Amino acid sequence: MRKMLLAALSRVLQGPAAAARPVSRVVVASRNYADFASEATFDIKKCDLHRLEEGPPVTAVLTREEGLHYYRTMQTIRRMELKSDQLYKQKIIRGFCHLYDGQEACCVGLEAGIKPTDHLITAYRAHGYAYTRGTSVREILAELTGRKGGCAKGKGGSMHMYAQNFYGGNGIVGAQVPLGAGIALACKYFGKDEICLTLYGDGAANQGQIFETYNMAALWKLPCIFICENNRYGMGTSVERAAASTDYYKRGDYIPGIRVDGMDILCVREATKFAAEHCRSGKGPMLMELQTYRYHGHSMSDPGISYRTREEIQEVRSKSDPITLLKDRMVNNSLSSVEELKEIDVEVRKEIEEAAQFATTDPEPPLEELGNHIYKNEPPFEVRGPSLWLKYKSVG
Amino acid sequence: MAAAAGALRRLVRGGPQQGLGRLLQLRSGIHGSAPAAVQVTVRDALNQALDEELERDERVFLLGEEVAQYDGAYKISRGLWKKYGDKRIIDTPISEMGFTGIAVGAAMAGLRPICEFMTFNFSMQAIDQVINSAGKTLYMSAGMVSVPVVFRGPNGASAGVGAQHSQCFAAWYGHCPGLKVVSPWSSEDAKGLLKASVRDDNPVVMLENELMYGVPFEMSEEAQSKDFLVPIGKAKIERQGTHVTLVSHSRSVGHCLEAAAVLVKEGVECEVINLRTIRPMDVESIEASVMKTNHLITVEGGWPQFGVGAEICARMMEGPAFNYLDAPAVRLTGADVPMPYAKILEENCLPQVKDIIFAVKKILNI
């Protein structure tokens, strides 16, 4: 009954100019103070601890603004990845394409726990991070389709997207981990209280260079949070088949670690704040294992069902989807409504469609730019093409 | 006075000259008294370069095994830890892949690291970080992320260190776009190239030579200045000649000059080119020389297949110098075997002065 009255009220308030105004704004204006709480407190899962007396808090406060922001961001990433799936099947995206749908709470939760002046580096399942670190959907999709409007002008592709304080997008499994510790070393060197989040997957966790990096990061007390995004499978190999110890949060040995529910954005956020505080206080590195899940296969060439069951995927989707979890929390605690969130969905869909439109119509980079960006701050020189008669100019 | 100053500039920058004696002559001519040039070993020249660049730019730091408290495995960084401390001179554990990645990451985040490999043989453990993380990132990011890092250390054969410690990596790194690769011979080369490499905003691989560390060279007054740089990408004509061009890099340059000194007694004037930079290679200087002498011999310590000499020969085929060659270009290289230990075997696995003389006579038909 109340809903009908309010709907009627909003129609009256809209007036003749309503067609020009976005509907959501009107609805929100008419419903905000009356019906929505400004914040709510939630119980979150306690983290498993390694070499720590105390862990992150077991409750988290979510404000309405935060909730709406997280919801919109996660939904944007979800739809962006699904659009990429579509474009890949149409052969408009080529090569490697590793999708992030299912893991949204990780990148959005991490970003919520740090500052834009902090640094982040990850591996190749990076589209979500490119977005949370400030790249637009347009630029991400245009990079995937290899156009000049892409964030790397079409030179990088899926695995090589960069932004301010975001160092990619790295294709060699595990290589980004020492890089991240190096960035943390620079943070400590410059003394600006910044930290570096260094991500890797459960598959990469068995790379030797990661253990070399743990050692140096601990020895030199680098402000580095090592983050293992454990989505249970390294390509087609389940964690049980790849690791003698699947307690990834303990594998830093002397480095304190926490294991976090990576499907709950509040859990991720609180854990990140906790770890960031630890690093900023000069205590050295920390390790966070985020237990998460990817709906897609390893990449677009992997259907993802030869090494796991459809039932398992379905179960995660129905019981642990990060977007649904947030949505239910918000609706059940009057932080938002089903309609409001649906409106966000509509806006997001529109944004993705427009971005896809751009990504499929923007021209490819001009051939003349093939030789560019070999060296920085170098006078222009010539780069050899496939034959001695084919030369390209290179500017830095 | 201006003419003399001009001559001095040409001498230092690699203009035509006929050996270090000439340099000393001119110096005494200008000042009328003892030359201001001094004898400096390659080791000390590198040490000076490191000291000057650390002092000049706060962002520069050195990391590697034994660089700090041990004063450097080959004493290149002697005294630096005492002067600059733990923040700027960092001893690493034996973790090449790890600390090389750390150096590259630090460079991406705005520092200017110098990453020392105890020898370049160990860089193979970290080669992914050098090529994929350092070399390619500027290109992949379309110019957004630059990597101003220097990788340096001894390269190539030493004396009796066996096969696993004697490999030359000039061709390996020289193969890769995105990297710069330099290879000093003299003290002037070492100092000027290291300083230029540190100031360069790109990843530079500097291939030193352990056997050269203790060799003294005359360093001109200009070369002793704190802003003395040797440009990357420019070869130097160490000795002017007319009958044959000898192109070389690193220790082999000395052998070429020795061979030239012997051959001059038989009336053969060799032009000796010190490449100084492997990538980007100064092909124009080689071409100009070959167009003058009509004969080319490349000399290097690395293995023959797919090497520096092979590249030079291929480039000669493709450019104007081809039509000036009176004989096929010839390569002198390390023998196509892993480096053996026994002295007689090891000696015969590298191009010696007698091999260079033999090759010159062979292609000149004398």
UniProtKB/TrEMBL annotation, chain A:
Span of the secretion signal? Answer: 1-19
Annotated EC: 1.2.4.1
Per the record's keyword annotation, is Cell division included, yes or no? no
Location of the Dehydrogenase E1 component domain = 72-367
Q: What is this protein called?
A: Pyruvate dehydrogenase E1 component subunit alpha
Q: Which cofactor does it need?
A: thiamine diphosphate; Mg(2+)
The top EC class is oxidoreductase
Query: Which GO cellular component terms, listed alphabetically, does the Swiss-Prot or TrEMBL entry include?
Result: mitochondrial matrix
Q: What does this protein do?
A: The pyruvate dehydrogenase complex catalyzes the overall conversion of pyruvate to acetyl-CoA and CO(2), and thereby links the glycolytic pathway to the tricarboxylic cycle.
Q: Name one GO molecular function term.
A: pyruvate dehydrogenase (acetyl-transferring) activity
* Protein's cellular compartments: Mitochondrion matrix
Which reactions does this protein catalyse?
N(6)-[(R)-lipoyl]-L-lysyl-[protein] + pyruvate + H(+) = N(6)-[(R)-S(8)-acetyldihydrolipoyl]-L-lysyl-[protein] + CO2
Q: Give a single Pfam family match.
A: E1_dh
Keywords of the record, alphabetical order, are:
Carbohydrate metabolism, Glucose metabolism, Magnesium, Metal-binding, Mitochondrion, Oxidoreductase, Phosphoprotein, Pyruvate, Signal, Thiamine pyrophosphate, Transit peptide
- Gene Ontology biological-process entries: glucose metabolic process; pyruvate decarboxylation to acetyl-CoA
TrEMBL record, chain B:
Pfam families cross-referenced by the UniProt entry: Transket_pyr, Transketolase_C
At the highest ranks, the source species' classification is:
Eukaryota, Metazoa, Chordata, Craniata, Vertebrata
Q: Which InterPro entries match?
A: PDHB_mito-type, THDP-binding, Transketo_C/PFOR_II, Transketolase-like_Pyr-bd, Transketolase_C
What broad class describes the main subcellular location of this protein?
mitochondrion
Describe the location of the Transketolase-like pyrimidine-binding domain by residue ranges. 40-215
The record's listing under SUPFAM superfamilies reads:
Thiamin diphosphate-binding fold (THDP-binding), TK C-terminal domain-like
Catalyses which reaction?
N(6)-[(R)-lipoyl]-L-lysyl-[protein] + pyruvate + H(+) = N(6)-[(R)-S(8)-acetyldihydrolipoyl]-L-lysyl-[protein] + CO2
Query: Biological process (GO) annotations?
Result: glucose metabolic process; pyruvate decarboxylation to acetyl-CoA
Summarize the protein's role: The pyruvate dehydrogenase complex catalyzes the overall conversion of pyruvate to acetyl-CoA and CO2.
Q: Does the keyword Metal-binding apply?
A: yes
List required co-factors.
thiamine diphosphate
**Protein name as it appears in the record:** Pyruvate dehydrogenase E1 component subunit beta
GO annotation, cellular component aspect? mitochondrion; pyruvate dehydrogenase complex
Record note on quaternary structure: Heterotetramer of two PDHA1 and two PDHB subunits. The heterotetramer interacts with DLAT, and is part of the multimeric pyruvate dehydrogenase complex that contains multiple copies of pyruvate dehydrogenase (E1), dihydrolipoamide acetyltransferase (DLAT, E2) and lipoamide dehydrogenase (DLD, E3). These subunits are bound to an inner core composed of about 48 DLAT and 12 PDHX molecules. Interacts with DLAT.
**UniProt EC number:** 1.2.4.1
Q: Which PANTHER family match?
A: DEHYDROGENASE RELATED, PYRUVATE DEHYDROGENASE E1 COMPONENT SUBUNIT BETA, MITOCHONDRIAL
Q: Which GO terms describe its molecular function?
A: glycosyltransferase activity; metal ion binding; pyruvate dehydrogenase (acetyl-transferring) activity
Report the leader peptide range.
Answer: none
The record's keywords, sorted A to Z, are:
Carbohydrate metabolism, Glucose metabolism, Glycosyltransferase, Metal-binding, Mitochondrion, Oxidoreductase, Potassium, Pyruvate, Thiamine pyrophosphate, Transferase, Transit peptide
- Main EC class of this protein? oxidoreductase
- Provide the protein's localization: Mitochondrion
